[in-house]
């Protein structure tokens, strides 16, 4: 392909000089063709990794690991009929983490030479030694065997970076046209793509080369009624996925209808962006005039796109062991699900609640061969028939809770940030009995069906939460009757999961996901998926969010 | 390499412009150097550092623009970076929102934004400060988690129309959460400075420790409408969305004109000039303020001046892009960095003394938009919530969830205290009546 054909439309708006500040776009802005060039070969990375490990050991480290990372990002931004921006970035460098005097130290450099890497390793040891002067507890790592020279590649079908920019722009502008022709006043659409090419090595004897891809197409549609001064929005029902551009080639088999009367289509492993944009514009328009919800208790039927966020906030975060132990107390918070609470064996939810953690699910954002401290990934139970049975752990936490093995949840957003415990995929298992979404709704006397995730907020120990959504439908006597607006539900995590009355079967199961989950200080971003089937929760407190100003 | 002087930076930028063959060219050089330490469970957990200089070059041919960046500064790399920006620009579509680059600008003086004491910080200094915080908690048998982050940096701009800008900045932020070992009490304190010599981790840790010890075994009050005293850290957060930041971010002219803001007017236009808040509400920005010195130029090179946003409850100005200012025929005002809310002389304690019944809120958390039409936000109290009766704190109370709009909040104003610095802004504690708490939280 000719360069001009591939690149096309590499437009950058006047504000582009400040784009490196956009999360995920750390590093140098580059020509999109640069993203197709190979990085360092594996032999060169192994040699550089050994420079880091040897320099760290010589400086006094008892353990060291090194991550040589090349992080590629691309974002295509449009509004209405115009391209706002196209950004391609590359970030390349080396992070060295050490234990010296029983204390962690970390340093990073983008000077990827023997001297630069050795200096970073020495600085990491110097920082560890400085910190050890005020340290009282020695770091203890769960044992980890070395894997030798191994590799893992995401099983994508189409590398998003190899798709011409023009094709991506055409898709987004067609998405905007679909929204505008169906009544949207404004529409923004965006496509993000990520490729992490990372090489990990440690003094345990692992040399791990991995290639990870993520994609996230999304949009926001707004309809304005100038006469009344009201405006309403609806955003995309896409999920960020651990996939290539094949996610944007819609297949009928991947479309899952919501309950009859709802006009909702969910998506599995491919996404029809144009169809969703057209529907979004119509629904945003309907939201301007539909009935405002009467507050009270309702049975909720939650679609997987919506429920993924509730799972994320009320199960994913409270079962992170670093939060449980207090490591996040100053920022993200702690957890109600303490070791003492777990020991009492109290129910987290009803018997229908079975929640599994994994870093393996195909097409998920968490899927990877090894984590960022060289631990092989796996699947394990978090909640079994309503009981909390385990947490999410990394190597320096396992020993604190008397376990001998990490769960492989260590991650860093780039070579220049220190790795720490991040959420794996956390998913609600679908029901084992055959159950369609219509059958699920049929049993509801007074309820609300919610599709899409909206406003969300939860306290620092993950008890009290409030969630909105994208579209809401009233359920009366087993049937969808009309669209509602101004809906949010307020609940307590244990009451909410305790009220779980069952899920649809595996045919309704699909992934929701989050591209930029924030945690840590300085804050780092990670991507995570949450699978579920449409699920019912009984007798939940719904509030009306309309106000007069 | 991280902090270049004005002369050093402009020499590089002159060279860059000299390599350019584009119709217009603008180059921005910025650098940052600093470090951080994080602790939890009275022990240091992680630490890190940053040291980087980066050049961004924007080349323009007519209404086509391209940007490239690099972080090496030999002639060959600079020349390649310029060439790459030009190649990208030639292939770009014309921008419908193109605005010519700005010519020479006059900027305010910048003396207070950089402090040598911050530049001189070492790993040992960070460990010692966090260590001194941990000792206090050890002695009081409390558990702490803290974060110390400092950096110094510079930004320099130059373009082919004659614009030239340079500024150095430094900053240090510290926050600490102290908890009781039984998990029933929690307290928080935070502060930020340009000049690290003003910083003492011990003073802040004692405040958080007192709040933790005092918030043990909180009582449950019914949710509902309460008079609240919101401390400055409850109004603006370094690390999260906040009610006041939400309001300031909503002062965007384009969104208002397009009909999708609380400032949009029925039938079209915006509500600039209308009185929307209590008449004691006055908010302005001033990058030359000695307590909260800020960048004196915006990302596109426009001067940041002293600017009044809300005066005596009336919306006086909205910020805008240069494109929208020209299209809508409105004043061309860049979005400010930090801002200053005028206040009185009363401390938080003075506000407590004058309160018959109310709730003192240390911090609000996980604040998220619920309805952009009304600027309704939800979130929760955290790390020190207390019941006040007859001018005194009576007992700690369980945390609440709120659903409230800053617009409603600034109409229900009872009293304004003395502003203090939070997150680069000057923010007074506020006493607000009828603040809406919608449910209780068991979180501590």
Structure, explained:
The complex is a heterodimer of chains A (549) and B (444). Chain A has 549 residues and is an alpha+beta fold. Chain A folds into 2 domains: 3-214, PmbA/TldD fold, CATH 3.30.2290.10; 296-544, no CATH class. Chain A has 11 helices and 28 strands. In chain A, strands 11, 12, 19, 20, 21, 22, 23, 24, 25 and 28 form a 10-stranded mixed beta sheet that branches. In chain A, strands 1, 2, 3, 4, 5, 6, 7 and 8 form an 8-stranded mixed beta sheet that branches. In chain A, strand 9 and strand 10 form a beta hairpin. In chain A, helix 2 (42-59) packs parallel to helix 3 (114-132) and helix 4 (165-180) runs parallel beside helix 5. Chain B has 444 residues and is α+β, with helices and mostly antiparallel strands. Chain B has 2 domains: 6-211, PmbA/TldD fold; 217-243 and 343-441, no CATH class. Chain B has helices at 6-19, 75-91, 116-119, 123-139, 201-214, 232-235, 243-249, 253-257, 322-328, 348-353, 406-409; strands at 24-40, 43-61, 64-70, 143-159, 164-179, 186-193, 224-230, 283-285, 307-311, 314-315, 340-341, 357-371, 376-389, 392-396, 399-404, 413-416, 420-422, 425-427, 430-441. A 6-stranded antiparallel beta sheet of chain B has the order 3-2-1-4-5-6. The radius of gyration of chain B is 24 Å and the shape is globular. The two termini of chain B are 45 Å apart. The model of chain B has no long low-confidence stretch (mean pLDDT 95). At the A-B interface, strand 1, strand 4, helix 3, strand 8 and strand 20 of A face strand 1, strand 2, strand 3, helix 2 and helix 4 of B.
């Amino acid at each position: 392909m000719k360069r001009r054909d591939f690149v096309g439309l590499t437009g950058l708006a006047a504000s582009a000089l400040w784009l490196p500040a956009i999360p995920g776009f750390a590093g140098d802005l580059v020509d999109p063709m640069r993203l197709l060039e190979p990085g360092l070969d594996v032999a060169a990375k192994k040699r550089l990794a050994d420079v880091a490990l040897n320099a760290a050991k010589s400086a006094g480290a008892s353990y060291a690991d090194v991550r040589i990372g090349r992080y590629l990002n691309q974002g295509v931004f449009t509004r209405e009929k115009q391209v706002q921006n196209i950004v391609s970035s590359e970030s390349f460098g080396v992070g060295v983490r050490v234990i010296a005097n029983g204390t962690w130290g970390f340093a990073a450099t983008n000077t990827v030479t023997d001297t630069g890497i050795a200096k970073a390793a020495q600085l990491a040891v110097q920082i560890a030694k400085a910190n050890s002067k005020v340290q009282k507890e020695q770091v203890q790592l769960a044992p980890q065997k070395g894997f030798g020279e191994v590799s893992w590649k995401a099983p994508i079908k189409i590398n998003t970076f190899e798709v011409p920019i023009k094709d991506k722009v055409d898709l987004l502008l067609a998405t905007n046209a679909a929204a505008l022709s169906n009544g949207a006043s404004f529409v923004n659409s965006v496509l993000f793509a990520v490729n992490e090419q990372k090489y990990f090595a440690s003094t345990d004897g692992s040399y791990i080369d991995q290639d990870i891809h993520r994609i996230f197409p999304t949009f926001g549609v707004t309809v304005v009624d100038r006469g009344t001064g009201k405006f309403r929005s609806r955003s995309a029902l896409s999920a960020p996925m651990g996939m290539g551009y094949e996610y944007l080639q819609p297949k009928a088999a991947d479309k899952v209808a919501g309950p009859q009367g709802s006009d909702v289509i969910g998506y599995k492993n491919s996404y029809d962006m144009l169809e969703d944009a057209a529907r979004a514009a119509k629904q945003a328009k309907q939201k301007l005039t539909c009935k405002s919800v009467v507050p009270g208790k309702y049975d909720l039927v939650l679609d997987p796109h919506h429920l993924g966020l509730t799972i994320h906030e009320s199960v994913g975060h409270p079962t992170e062991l670093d939060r449980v132990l207090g490591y996040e107390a100053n920022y993200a918070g702690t957890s109600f699900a303490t070791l003492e609470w777990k020991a009492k064996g109290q129910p987290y939810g009803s018997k229908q609640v079975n929640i599994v953690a994994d870093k393996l699910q195909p097409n998920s954002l968490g899927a990877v061969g090894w984590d960022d401290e060289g631990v092989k990934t796996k699947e394990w139970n978090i909640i079994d028939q309503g009981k909390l049975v385990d947490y999410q752990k990394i190597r320096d936490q396992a020993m604190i809770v008397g376990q001998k093995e990490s769960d492989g949840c260590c991650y860093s957003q780039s070579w220049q940030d220190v790795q720490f415990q991040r959420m794996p995929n956390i998913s609600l298992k679908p029901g084992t009995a055959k159950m369609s979404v219509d059958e699920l709704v049929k049993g509801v006397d007074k309820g609300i069906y919610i599709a899409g995730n909206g406003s969300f907020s939860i306290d620092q120990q993950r008890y009290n939460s409030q969630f909105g959504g994208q579209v809401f439908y009233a359920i009366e006597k087993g049937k969808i009757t009309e669209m509602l607006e101004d809906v949010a539900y307020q609940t307590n995590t244990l009451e909410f999961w305790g009220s779980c009355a069952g899920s649809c079967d595996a045919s309704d199961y699909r992934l929701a996901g989050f591209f930029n989950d924030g945690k840590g200080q300085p804050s780092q971003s990670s991507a995570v998926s949450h699978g579920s089937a449409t699920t019912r929760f009984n007798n939940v407190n719904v509030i009306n969010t309309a106000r007069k100003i | 390499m991280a902090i270049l002087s004005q002369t050093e930076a402009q020499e590089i930028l002159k060279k860059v412009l000299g390599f350019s063959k584009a119709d217009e060219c603008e180059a921005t050089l910025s650098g940052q150097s600093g470090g951080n330490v994080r602790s939890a469970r009275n022990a240091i957990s992680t630490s890190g550092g940053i040291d980087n200089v980066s050049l961004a070059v924007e080349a323009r041919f007519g209404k086509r623009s391209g940007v490239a960046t690099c972080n090496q500064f030999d002639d060959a790399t600079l020349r390649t970076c310029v060439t790459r920006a030009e190649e990208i620009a030639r292939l770009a579509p014309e921008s419908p929102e193109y605005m010519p680059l700005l010519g020479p600008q006059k900027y305010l003086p910048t003396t207070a934004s950089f402090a040598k004491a911050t530049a001189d910080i070492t790993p040992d200094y960070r460990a010692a400060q966090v260590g001194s915080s941990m000792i206090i908690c050890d002695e009081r048998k409390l558990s702490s988690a803290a974060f110390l982050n400092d950096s110094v940096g510079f930004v320099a701009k130059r373009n082919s129309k004659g614009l030239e800008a340079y500024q150095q900045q430094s900053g240090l932020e510290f926050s600490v959460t102290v908890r009781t070992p039984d998990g029933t009490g929690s307290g928080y304190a935070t502060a930020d400075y340009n000049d690290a010599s003003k910083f003492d981790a011990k003073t802040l840790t004692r405040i958080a420790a007192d709040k933790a010890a005092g918030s043990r075994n909180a009582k449950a009050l019914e949710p509902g409408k309460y008079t609240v005293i919101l401390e400055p850290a409850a109004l603006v957060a370094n690390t999260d969305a906040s009610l006041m930041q939400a309001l300031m971010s909503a002062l965007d002219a384009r969104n208002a004109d397009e009909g999708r803001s609380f400032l949009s007017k029925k039938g079209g236009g915006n509500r600039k000039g209308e009185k929307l808040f209590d008449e004691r509400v006055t908010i302005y920005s001033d990058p030359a303020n000695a307590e909260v010195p800020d960048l004196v130029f915006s990302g596109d090179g426009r001067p940041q001046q002293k600017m009044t946003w809300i005066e005596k409850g009336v919306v006086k100005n909205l910020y805008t892009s240069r494109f929208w200012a020209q299209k809508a025929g409105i004043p061309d005002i860049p979005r400010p960095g930090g801002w200053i809310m005028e206040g009185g002389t009363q401390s938080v304690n003075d506000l407590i003394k004058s309160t018959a019944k109310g709730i003192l809120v240390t911090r609000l958390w996980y604040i998220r938009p619920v309805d952009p039409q009304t600027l309704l936000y939800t979130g929760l109290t955290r790390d020190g919530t207390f019941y006040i009766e007859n001018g005194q704190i009576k007992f700690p109370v369980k945390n609440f969830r709120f659903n409230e709009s800053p617009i409603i909040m600034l109409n229900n104003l009872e009293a304004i205290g003395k502003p203090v610095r939070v997150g680069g802004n000057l923010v007074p504690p506020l006493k607000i009546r009828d603040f809406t708490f919608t449910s209780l939280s068991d979180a501590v």
